[in-house]
Design a protein that fits this description.
Radius of gyration: 19 Å
Strand content: under 5%
Structural class: mainly alpha
Strand order of the largest sheet: 1-2
Length: 287
């Protein structure tokens, strides 16, 4: 169905689902849930078997979106970490976050033609929510989901097209990962809502889905290879899944099987098709 941007009433997003388990069916039956999962699955299919370096269409809008992410990373140098007693959660992140919050609508305005400007205030909220929590100075999969929602909004209003899917994942989302990794490392951000060793990862989930799709059908790299240093070091620039494994090994010490048990178990799955379908199933249960 064609989205009626002229007739649609945009509003500041607010929480509609409570914290109790009885609220889960309300979320799972919502149009937002179906739309967001549909977006993630469509992107998953678009990058099947494709390297990060694959040629893909880069519209002016996507180029500007990449520039926006570059701008956010450049702001980090304006707010260097301060000396403080606690090891994690550097308070300078709050100053960086304040600047984003104050400029988010203007940044989104700069992406959109006049026809779409009325959507910018609503969409900007998802951009702010995508980088972490200002109070707790943490970052997790909920923030990652906000960025997925941010991207999906541009599809919803018609700015992004089906032909943009490869670039959305291989260029824009991968650039977002570099940004949030810089924030995590610079400001020593805590994992948000992590289940520790039983979580797939402290911070991300979606790049493991899309990253495993990239590896489907690869003639030499198998799931059991993904945890080998000679593989993830050499191929991390080509495949998002291996980039995530490399990053984990950069920020964690000790045996991989101990600090990343779930990913270690995944490495025993026989092929990437099964890894991908299993991760999609896990995500549907957790989202």
């Amino acid at each position: 169905m064609q989205f009626d941007i002229e007739g649609h009433e945009f509003m500041i997003p607010k929480k509609e689902i409570g914290p109790g388990p009885e609220e889960i069916p309300k979320w799972e039956k919502s149009q937002a849930y179906q739309d967001l999962l549909g977006f993630i699955l469509a992107m998953n299919n678009a990058v099947k078997g494709k390297k990060m370096s694959a040629e893909c269409q880069m519209s002016p809008f996507l180029t500007h979106l990449m520039e926006l992410l570059d701008t956010l990373e450049s702001w980090i140098s304006e707010f260097p970490p301060v000396d403080q007693p606690q090891r994690f959660g550097n308070k300078s992140f709050r100053d960086w976050f304040d600047k984003l919050q104050q400029n988010a609508k203007q940044l989104v305005d700069g992406l959109l033609d006049d026809k779409y400007q009325k959507a910018s205030e609503e969409i900007a909220v998802y951009l702010v929510e995508a980088v972490g929590n200002q109070t707790r100075i943490d970052y997790g999969t909920g923030h990652e989901m906000a960025f997925a929602a941010f991207l999906f909004c541009f599809y919803k209003i018609g700015v992004l097209k089906e032909s943009d899917a490869e670039a959305v994942v291989l260029k824009v989302f991968s650039r977002y990962l570099l940004l949030v990794r810089s924030l995590q490392q610079t400001y020593r951000m805590e994992p948000a809502g992590s289940q520790g060793v039983w979580a797939l990862d402290d911070h991300q989930f979606i790049p493991f889905i899309w990253g495993s799709s990239q590896l489907i059908g690869h003639p030499r790299i198998f799931p059991k290879s993904s945890v080998k240093p000679e593989i993830y070091e050499h191929f991390s620039k080509d495949y998002m899944f291996l980039s995530c494994i490399k990053y984990i090994n950069q920020v964690k010490t000790g045996p991989f099987a101990e600090h990343s048990n779930q990913l270690w178990n995944i490495s025993a799955v026989p092929n990437w098709d099964k890894v991908n379908s299993g991760l999609v199933k896990m995500y549907k249960a957790e989202v």
